[in-house]
């Protein structure tokens, strides 16, 4: 029995009628072949039909779990010996796991702008570090409105950092979003600084009504998402994005989680690994030995686990497409000013702020039960591809942006190993994270970084040298020329 037929049997008479009407409207026969993207799972809010253009439209629920500042090696599934992340590891095991996924920028705001607008984070001729305008995106480039228009309930929870409210971009619902790049405190009351002095940071709205003494912010936000899912309109699919404030600073976690990690870190033998090595104008942290940060990573994992369990309890795990990602690499680097650092991205080089892979390579998993074959996937993808993919899946349309629809990659019918992608970091922070102005291009296995103020190049074969230790720029001048030409051509477009 085909899956579509099962849906018909399960649906109410009214929904059967509506479904038939849709089929008639599009004068197309329901497609019943068995490729991963051709049939919906039998559950309440899912539907599947052919569009007028003949492309397949699917409407699974969508849950995006986006962690702030989580490094590629901050997960036990990626080799961390200190942070235990069993829930995310399990999710990874059931997902297409990207081994060459990148943020479009090594810091929060441009990275998030790229993700939410589906293109490179370029505005008014530059890549601003802050102050993006997101309330003036035309409708023909607005992915959220496109998905909303396809019948989705859309909701955004947590860190926005792109203006006043995600509703400006078209989300129906938003909770605890807004200007804040981080909470004043992860410990209740969240808008009051713990310890000495007063915070100059923007408070996060909505929190007073939904929290109480003793709460941890990440638990509160997860609970909000859970309530939203439980109370959803079951006649329509939802797209919910939880942008965790974890694991960004301030370093604050639950006492029992800190204690457990402190004990584990004390017992761990770091061998002859140095605590720091030199990088840029400052240092790279080389050990995962911050117990509070470890506790924050593990709390995030616990909350991911709660949401996955909820999807299962609601009977919608099978027809929910789940994306897990981070906005850039972990905070492992300081600059001329020394400070307390979070983690190490080692064996990747450097971290947040830098165009070495430690700054831009991210954990990125896409799960859709029974639809996507769990596997490692080496195609080059970026956060700007997320919404073009979801929009194509749910509307059959492609909007005009640089981000690409990843469905053929997810579906394993295309490989994007030779794709060319770019970065431009003109707002360096030599004091805070030790980076200086640079641009970069990756094409296939090779990555060229250009410190354009000094006109200095470094070239790496990322496949053979993921830690970017062996600079090939002198040995391969022709490749430097080709890649720098492409990089300059890209930069001349903005
Ligand atoms: Ca961030």
Report on the structure:
The protein is α/β, with parallel strands linked by helices. The protein has 13 helices and 18 strands. The strands form five sheets. The chain has an eight-stranded mixed β-sheet, sandwiched between helices.
Draw up the topology in text.
Elements: H1 3-10, H2 13-25, E1 48-50, E2 56-58, E3 61-67, H3 86-93, E4 96-98, E5 101-102, H4 108-117, H5 143-149, E6 153-158, E7 173-175, H6 207-210, H7 217-230, E8 238-243, H8 255-267, E9 276-279, E10 282-285, H9 291-313, E11 320-326, H10 357-360, E12 364-367, E13 375-377, E14 381-382, H11 386-395, H12 407-410, E15 420-425, E16 438-443, E17 446-451, E18 456-461, H13 477-491
Parallel strand pairs: 3-8, 3-11, 4-13, 5-14, 6-7, 6-8
Antiparallel strand pairs: 1-2, 4-12, 9-10, 11-12, 15-16, 16-17, 17-18
The structure holds calcium ion (CA).
Q: Unreliable stretches, pLDDT < 50, 5 or more residues? A: 1-47
The set of bound ligands, ions and cofactors reads: calcium ion
* Structural class category: alpha/beta
**Averaging pLDDT over every residue, what do you get?**
90
Question: Beta-strand percentage?
Answer: 15-25%
**How many structural domains in the coordinates?**
3
- Name given to the CATH architecture of the largest domain: 3-Layer(aba) Sandwich
The global form is globular
Main sheet: strand order: 7-6-8-3-11-12-4-13
Biggest sheet descriptor: 8 strands, mixed
State the end-to-end distance. 53 Å
């Amino acid at each position: 029995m085909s899956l579509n037929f099962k849906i018909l049997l399960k649906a109410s008479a009214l929904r059967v009628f509506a479904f038939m009407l849709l089929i008639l409207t599009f004068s197309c026969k329901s497609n019943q072949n068995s490729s991963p993207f051709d049939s919906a799972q039998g559950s309440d809010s899912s539907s599947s039909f052919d569009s007028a253009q003949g492309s397949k439209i699917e409407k699974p629920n969508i849950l995006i779990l986006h962690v702030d500042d989580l490094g590629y090696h901050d997960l036990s599934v990626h080799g961390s010996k200190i942070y235990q992340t069993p829930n995310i590891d399990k999710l990874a095991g059931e997902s297409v796991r990207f081994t060459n996924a990148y943020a479009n920028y090594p810091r929060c705001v441009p990275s998030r702008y790229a993700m939410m607008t589906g293109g490179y984070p370029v505005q008014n001729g530059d890549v601003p570090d802050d102050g993006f305008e997101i309330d003036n995106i035309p409708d023909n480039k607005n992915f959220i409105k496109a998905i909303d228009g396809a019948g989705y309930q859309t909701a955004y929870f947590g860190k926005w950092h792109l203006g006043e409210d995600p509703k400006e971009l078209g989300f129906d619902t938003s909770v605890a979003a807004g200007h804040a790049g981080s909470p004043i405190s992860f410990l209740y009351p969240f808008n009051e600084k713990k310890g000495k002095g007063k915070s100059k940071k923007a408070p996060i709205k909505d929190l007073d009504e939904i929290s109480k003494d003793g709460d941890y912010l990440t638990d509160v936000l997860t609970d909000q998402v859970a309530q939203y899912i439980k109370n959803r309109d079951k006649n329509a699919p939802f797209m919910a994005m939880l942008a965790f404030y974890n694991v960004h600073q301030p370093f604050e976690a639950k006492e029992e989680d800190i204690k457990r990690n402190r004990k584990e870190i004390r017992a761990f033998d770091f061998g002859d690994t140095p605590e720091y090595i030199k990088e840029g104008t400052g240092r790279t942290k080389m050990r995962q030995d911050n117990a509070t940060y470890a506790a924050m990573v593990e709390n995030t994992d616990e909350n991911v686990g709660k949401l996955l369990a909820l999807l299962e309890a609601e009977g919608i795990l099978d027809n929910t497409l789940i994306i897990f990602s981070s906005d850039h690499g972990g905070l492992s680097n300081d600059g001329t000013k020394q400070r307390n650092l979070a983690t190490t991205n080692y064996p990747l080089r450097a971290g947040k702020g830098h165009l070495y892979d430690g700054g831009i390579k991210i954990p990125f998993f896409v799960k859709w039960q029974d639809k996507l074959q769990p596997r490692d996937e080496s195609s080059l993808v970026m956060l700007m591809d997320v919404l073009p993919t979801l929009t194509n899946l749910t509307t059959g349309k492609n909007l005009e942006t640089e981000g690409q629809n990843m469905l053929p990659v997810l579906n394993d019918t295309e490989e994007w190993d030779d794709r060319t992608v770019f970065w431009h970091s003109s707002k360096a922070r030599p004091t805070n994270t030790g980076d200086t102005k640079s641009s970069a291009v990756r094409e296939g296995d090779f990555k060229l970084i250009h410190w354009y103020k000094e006109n200095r190049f470094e070239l790496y074969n990322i496949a053979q040298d993921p830690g970017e230790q062996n600079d090939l720029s002198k040995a391969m001048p022709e490749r430097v020329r080709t890649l720098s030409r492409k990089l300059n051509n890209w930069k001349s477009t903005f």
